[in-house]
Amino acid sequence: MSVRAAVIVAGYRCAAAVKNALARPAEDPFAIARWTVTRDVSAARIALVLAGQAIPVMSSFVYFDYQAGSINTAAAAAVILLLMILVFVVAYLLLVARRTEDVR
Fold first, then answer.
1. pTM for this entry
2. Where are the domains of the chain?
3. Fewer CB within 10 Å, N side or C side of the chain?
4. Distance of alpha carbon 62 from alpha carbon 46, whole angstroms
5. pLDDT per position as a tens digit, 13-29
6. 48 contacts: CB under 8 Å, gap ≥ 6
7. Cα 48 to the chain's mean position, in Å?
């Protein structure tokens, strides 16, 4: 039995999950996002978050896959980063190729 299922069977109406993001209105009531505040988080950062600025939000890609329980968020973040790097490298190569053609 999953933790989520055990919580429901135990009669709870909601539960929090560490997603290091703020909760969204349509959030699963048994996986409400929670932002972890560690000793490294400054009081100024907390104040910004509480004021609605610098809000920690998971990307939609990671959020939806995390909801499905089928992905490790660190792995998803690494994949997203690698894809972004790949896109920038391809764009750079295309730009260099275009400039080379313009020079000829």
1. 0.44
2. 1-57, 72-104
3. C
4. 23
5. 999 887 777 777 778 88
6. 54
7. 19
C-alpha neighbours within 13 Å on the C-beta side of residue 3: 7
The tokens of 100 are what? Answer: 């080379």
The number of CA neighbours under 13 Å toward the Cβ of 45 is 9
What DSSP element (H or E) covers 34? Answer: strand 32-34
Q: What is the pLDDT of residues 26-61, one digit of tens each?
A: 788 888 888 888 888 889 988 888 777 776 665 444
List Cβ neighbours of 1 (8 Å cut-off, separation of 6 or more): 9
Name residues whose C-beta falls within 8 Å of residue 22's C-beta, 6 or more positions apart in sequence.
33, 35, 49, 55, 56, 57
For residue 32, what are the β-bridge partners?
16
**64 vs 19: CA distance, rounded Å:** 11
Report the alpha-carbon distance of residue 34 to residue 88 in Å, rounded.
Answer: 32
